[in-house]
TrEMBL record:
Domain of life, per lineage: Eukaryota
GO molecular function: metal ion binding; oxidoreductase activity
Family of this protein: Belongs to the iron/ascorbate-dependent oxidoreductase family.
Regions annotated as coiled coil: 311-348
Name listed for the protein in its UniProt record: Fe2OG dioxygenase domain-containing protein
UniProt keyword annotation of Calcium present: no
Pfam families: 2OG-FeII_Oxy, DIOX_N
Boundaries of every Fe2OG dioxygenase domain copy: 169-288
Keyword DNA repair recorded: no
PANTHER family tied to this protein: FI07970P-RELATED (PTHR10209:SF881), OXIDOREDUCTASE, 2OG-FE II OXYGENASE FAMILY PROTEIN (PTHR10209)
Alphabetical UniProt keywords: Coiled coil, Iron, Metal-binding, Oxidoreductase
Length: 364
């Protein structure tokens, strides 16, 4: 059976200027709240990070990923700290398969102990990376101020809960390198650059390189199917001057579900016009301090700490992965039984169903 063809719809992704932030804060707040309530995705321009600064961090990212795997493996990913390098390791519940990429997670404080490469291996990298991370933090704090206002909190409410100068900080900057995907695919292998998912954080800032497309979103969290399978997607073209931002599960919970955390993915290229080459991006995840107290203004959900929220998100992800694994094992067992039936009875074919749909034909 062939893969279901993706349905697409052109949707407008709000573009919001942060120019003259102090004098326009009420206007900007209104625009951000509208985007958070209705789409969950938006782009910001006039954000204060220059194209040269963005080019520099992408150049540093390419330097890091061009190192031999043995060198990068000296700073292995640690789930306890959410920092370090990993390759072909992240499995999404939406696909049950590892994303075809490598990544390097960086933080500001003590979680990076032992996770920076020695300067002799990559001269200037740490200094350049931290400089960019502080720039991204500055943009994030402007967004946090507006979202706090929109929810009736004090202006610095979210900034204090995401204070990257504190040892309890969990904010992450993630360098991403997606591998080239072969155009010729004779055996029908399915590739996943990044399966459909939502982010766990407050708000994510995504930096992309022009010409390296692939990001797709499925707005309207409450209207989505499980991981947006079969739903209608919208392609988001990279633009050097804009930072693509999305609401995370944390802000959805903190807003009592007023703001929408939206499914998104990096599509596996399959159409002639898709981008098959290496793809680089940088995601800045605003994660709460471990001891931050999280509860919306309407108190829809019980209060939890930042550490508890992250742990609960990881648990849900693990449970979804386990469900996916069991479904896969069940399907494989049914297919094997169907093959045996075909061989024993000498019939032309048998169908294997899952979820009320025929997912495989055996011996046809």
């Amino acid at each position: 059976m062939g893969a279901e063809k993706t349905k697409y719809l052109d949707r407008t992704i709000p573009t919001i200027s942060l120019a003259n932030f102090e004098s326009r804060i009420d206007e900007i707040t209104s625009e951000l709240v509208s985007a958070a309530e209705n789409v969950g995705f938006f782009s910001v321009i006039d954000h204060g990070i220059t194209p040269e600064e963005i080019d520099e961090i992408f150049a540093q990212s390419a330097r890091f990923f061009s190192l031999p795997d043995d060198t990068k493996a000296k700073v292995p990913f640690s789930s306890a700290n959410n920092a370090g390098w990993e390759k072909n390791a992240q499995v999404r519940p939406s696909t049950g398969a590892a994303d075809r990429k490598e990544s390097y997670q960086m933080q500001f404080g003590r979680n990076m102990e032992g996770k920076w490469l020695d300067d002799s291996a990559l001269p200037g990298f740490k200094e350049s990376a931290l400089k960019f991370m502080w720039k991204a933090q500055g943009v994030s704090e402007k967004l946090m101020t507006c979202f706090a206002r929109g929810l009736g909190f004090e202006d610095d409410y979210f900034i204090k809960a995401h204070d990257v100068k504190r040892p309890e900080s969990q904010t992450v900057a993630r360098l991403l390198h997606y591998f080239e995907t072969p155009r010729e695919n004779a055996n029908g292998e399915i590739f996943h650059r990044a399966g459909a998912h939502t982010d766990w954080d407050l708000v994510t800032l995504l930096f992309q390189k022009e010409g390296q497309s692939g990001l797709e979103i499925c707005p309207g969290r409450e209207a989505s199917t499980n991981f947006a399978h079969g739903d209608t997607w919208t392609k988001v073209a990279p633009c050097q001057d804009a930072i693509i931002c999305n609401i995370g599960d944390l802000l959805m919970s903190w807003s009592d579900d007023r703001f929408k955390s939206t499914f998104h993915r990096v599509k596996a290229p399959s159409e002639p016009d898709d981008f098959y080459g290496e793809r680089y991006s940088i995601a800045f995840f605003n994660q709460p301090c471990r001891d931050a107290k999280i509860q919306g203004p309407l108190k829809k959900y019980p209060m939890v700490t930042g550490e508890e929220f992250t742990r609960n998100a990881m648990r849900r992800n693990f449970e979804a992965l386990e469900k996916k694994r069991l479904e896969k094992e069940k399907l494989e067992k049914e297919m094997e039984e169907a093959r045996k039936l075909v061989e024993r009875e000498g019939i032309r074919g048998a169908s294997v169903e899952s979820g009320g749909k025929v997912v495989a034909e055996v011996g046809a």
